[in-house]
Amino acid sequence: MGPHPAVAAIRLAVRRVLHDLLTEHHRAPAAVPHALSHEQPPPPLVLVACSGGADSMALASALAFESPKLGIRAGGVTVDHGLQPGSDLRAAEVVQRLRELGLDPVDSVAVTVGRAGGPEAAARDARYAALDTAAERHGAAAVLLGHTRDDQAETVLLGLARGSGIRSLSGMAAVSGAGGRYRRPFLELDRQTARKACMVQSLPVWDDPHNADPAYTRSRLRHEGLPALEKALGKGVVEALARTAQLSRDDADALDSWAAQAEATVRDAAGLLDCAKLYALPPAVRRRVLRRAATAAGAPAGSLFARHIEEVDRLITGWRGQGAINLPGKVVARRQGGRLVIRQG
Ligand SMILES: Nc1ncnc2c1ncn2[C@@H]1O[C@H](COP(=O)(O)OP(=O)(O)OP(=O)(O)O)[C@@H](O)[C@H]1O
User: Fold this and answer.
1) Is residue 153 part of an annotated ligand binding site?
2) Which of 96, 209, 240, 255 has the highest count of CB atoms within 10 angstroms of its CB?
3) What is the pTM of this model?
């Protein structure tokens, strides 16, 4: 008898990602050519980022099962955000569970969570910094994350509510981070499948109290928003939102590359932006060119919001002699005759 369908599904999802990683590993040029070193390149190491929750425990179990078959080394990392009493004990428990699954090396990393951008964003920034450091320390080829299709649907809705364009509707990428380090094998699986896989494999899981805390936007969306949407629109909403993410990502990528080409054509010999040529561009491309110019001048991408770009855009499309526009990072945009100048003020 084969494994339970939920277990088969999580293993298949992980197997696909491991296959991709192996293909990339064999294609990458070795630091010392094998013919000279007379040695096989070491097998790649893949780490699972595990909170102890159902999604990442299911991921860890599938990684532990699939990796030896492909000659891949598998380890794990858990991050202790220090946000609740006893979080260190929980981290130690996760380490033990990962070791019991046969993963090695397994790290627990304690981080200090700041306040910048709100509690959820600050915890996420600290977590990714710790995962980056762990991946570099171990020379890992990849770090697997347990985001599911349900997480993707939530991310799309949060992006929609921000009102900042299709890039924010494109959710999380299956591959992201420096050198494509982060992989999300479960993006097309639902959370229920991961939970079921843990249950039938008797894997103990930890339910993060933050996930049920109505003080957090994502938690309200998960427990109130999405169920209400499903009730009103039908069961396929999560799947449709995840599909929206993929379609939006493709569209946003195409527009970004169009904007990169357009930027070169609207800059004059001195590197200033020609307002008439900007005006002639489709608005979606023009706004992207303006965003590129602002970040190139030093405006931090994360603090540059749609409203900033709209204001700069009005220097082109609604010109009535208005003054300079202040942007984050002390960048100033001003119109000088037929040119737009965006630089450090
Ligand atoms: N404390 C942590 N330590 C290591 N990895 C983490 C930690 N928290 C989250 N992650 C990684 O990020 C992914 C997404 O986490 P998030 O908390 O957004 O979602 P989740 O659905 O609650 O996931 P899970 O059920 O695995 O906790 C997790 O599946 C895991 O891979």
Assistant:
1) no
2) 255
3) 0.89
Distance 51 CA to ligand 1 centre (A): 5
Residues 138, 142, 147, 148: what is their CA dihedral angle, to the nearest 10 degrees?
Answer: -140
CA dihedral (216, 217, 218, 219) in degrees, to 10, reads 50
Architecture of domain 267-344 in CATH?
Answer: 2-Layer Sandwich (3.30)
Percent of the chain's residues with pLDDT above 90: 80
Domain ranges of the chain: 5-240, 267-344
Superfamily of domain 5-240: HUPs (3.40.50.620)
Question: Please, are residues 188 and 276 in contact by the beta-carbon 8 Å criterion?
Answer: no
- Summarised one tens digit per residue, pLDDT across range 150-183 is 999 999 999 999 887 899 999 999 999 999 999 9
Establish whether residue 79 lines the binding site of ligand 1, counting it when its CB lies within 6 angstroms of any ligand atom. Answer: yes
Output the pLDDT for position 35: 54
ipTM of the complex: 0.94
